Amino acid sequence: GQAATFAMPAAKRLLEEHGLSASQVPASGPGGRLLKEDVLTFVRNRGN
Amino acid sequence: MKTVRHELVVLGGGPAGYVAALRAAQLGIDVACIDENNQFGGTCLRVGCIPSKALLESSHLYHEAKHGFSAHGIKLDGLQFDLDAMMTRKKKIVDTLTGGIDMLFKKRGVTPYRGRGKFKDNETIQVDGDEPVLVQADQILVCTGSRPARLSFIEEDGDRIGNSTTALSFPDVPERLIVIGGGYIGLEMSSVWNRLGSKVIVLEALDRIMPGIDGEVAQLAHRTLKKQGLDIRTSTFVDSAKREGDECVVKIKGGETLRADRVLLATGRTPATDNIGLEAIGLETDKRGFISVNEEFQTSLESVYAIGDCIGGAMLAHKAMEEAIVCVERMVGMKSHMNYDVIPAVVYTHPEIGMVGQTEEQLKEAGIEYKKGICPFGANGRAHTLGESDGRVKILADAKTDRVLGVHIIGARAGDLIAEAATAMEFGASSEDIARTCHAHPTLSEAVHEAALAVAGRAIHTV
Predict the structure, then answer these.
(1) B161-267 fold
(2) What pLDDT score does A3 carry?
(3) Is A36 on the interface with B (CB under 8 A)?
(4) Strand residues in B261-357 grouped as ranges (E)
(5) Whose CA, among B82, B97, B178, B338, lies 20 to 30 Å from B260?
(6) In chain B, which residues fall in CATH 3.50.50.60?
(7) pLDDT, tens digit, for every residue of B244-303?
(8) Where does residue B393 fall: left (phi above 0), alpha (psi -120 to 50 degrees), or beta otherwise?
(9) pLDDT tens, residue by residue, B61-101
(10) ipTM of this predicted complex?
(11) Which CATH number does B345-455 carry?
């Protein structure tokens, strides 16, 4: 993943809920878009 | 014979060919396009998408006037239709759109050649038109499309027993019509003639109609089409069909013999790759006639490319158009890509069917866990105001990531509604992304929104 250029709406919601910013989470969506699943993966891995 | 040379020559002027030619011209390539028909536009514009949709709309309006208007308090006396006028309207639309391609070719500088094109060697195509000409090019793009498949035991005469092209131009409404094949082409044409008064029997060899469409949606479609008067018989094999005078006789395997005024054979389409001189350049097709290509749409010959129906895959106009853009852009070094996972498909019966991505059957087979969100059109205000409360939107999303994996819509304007789903999927959207997008009220698109909410069990207008 690369640094996010844009966070999808559901990703934005999740970021805020977890106190994260888009720059912290690697983005895998087209054109560097941060997907909901990117945040979910990030949070899951951070939890471990 | 006159010899001309271009940088790129496109063999075939259908959705693959004319789009490739236009995009190539836009990118500064000296391009020519060859087509054997008087009109550019290929199957889609001349004898496919466009004329069939014209007749579907005319017959639907007639059907609505007859059966639907009274619910709006509109009374009609002496309702009639004029088949000749419907056919004239259809022809006008085809002429306008094919004429549009001529105009675009002219404006963008695409050189058209009308006539049958055949490979002479791997950089020369001989065009046998009014003025035979040898067209040479650095690169040749084969876009020869497809044609209705024939079956040896169906004796087509192109009149009483014919294919989709024949069925688009019946001179009168057949009293009894037998359609062999319960795919989308067969069912669309069945709808047209059923609405105009034909008694239509659809014979399908499989145990369901519309293979490829999500099973649940196909079942709903089957029920609705039956209610509209189509006599659909699945798991029914045809032994033979032949003409006897002005009548057609269709024998069912191990069953009865049916008689009809006309028979439509619509069991599939086959690539049109024979008789274009592929043997002259040593290019072999697979058993079914499809040309094999690599990711760049290049054949086994360096200078010969192929796209559209003739390379197989989904035989859809927009798939061919997409390949055209990607193929030509790659020729000039652009890194454009083709996403075969997100190609919508639409059936223009009424209600329409729109789908994109994977069906439930495919997900189950692949062992992918998914969540399902459904919104019936009955829960949509706009659907009621339109008198179109039959139908549903189904969204399938990955159980873990919530990414949208497939969207299946049956209902009015499903073909238009599916575009939102395709866009969302192209952006890797989750069902929540669609749910968090504000949709205008009242619109049918709210049913998509509501189905997305339903994936997570938080639909507002359904329980």
Answers:
(1) FAD/NAD(P)-binding domain (3.50.50)
(2) 66
(3) yes
(4) 262-265, 269-271, 304-306, 345-347, 352-357
(5) B82
(6) 2-148+270-331, 161-267
(7) 999 999 999 998 999 999 999 999 999 999 999 999 999 999 999 999 999 999 999 999
(8) beta
(9) 999 999 999 999 999 999 999 999 999 999 999 999 999 99
(10) 0.74
(11) 3.30.390.30
Residue B409: which residues within 8 A CB-CB, separation 6 or more?
B217, B352, B353, B354, B355, B391, B392, B393, B394, B417, B418, B421, B447, B448
Interchain contact, A30 vs B437, CB within 8 Å: no
Q: What are phi and psi of A36, to 5 degrees?
A: -55, -40
Return d(Cα A45, Cα B291) in angstroms, integer: 46
Share of chain B above pLDDT 90, in %: 98
Instruction: Among B398, B426, B433, select the one facing A10 at the smallest CB separation.
Output: B433
Share of chain B above pLDDT 70, in %: 100
Which tokens go with B221?
Answer: 């479609």
Cβ(B57)–Cβ(B192) below 8 Å? no
Phi, psi for residue B114 in degrees, rounded to 5: -105, 125
Q: Residue B181 pLDDT > 80, yes or no?
A: yes
Closest to A10 (Cβ–Cβ): which among B400, B426, B436? Answer: B436
Parallel, antiparallel or unpaired: strands B370-376 and B262-265: unpaired
Does any CB of chain A come closer than 8 Å to the CB of residue B94? Answer: no
Q: Which amino acid is at B367?
A: G
Q: Using the predicted structure, report yes or no on whether residue A1 has a pLDDT greater than 60.
A: no
Class of the CATH domain delimited by B2-148+270-331: alpha beta
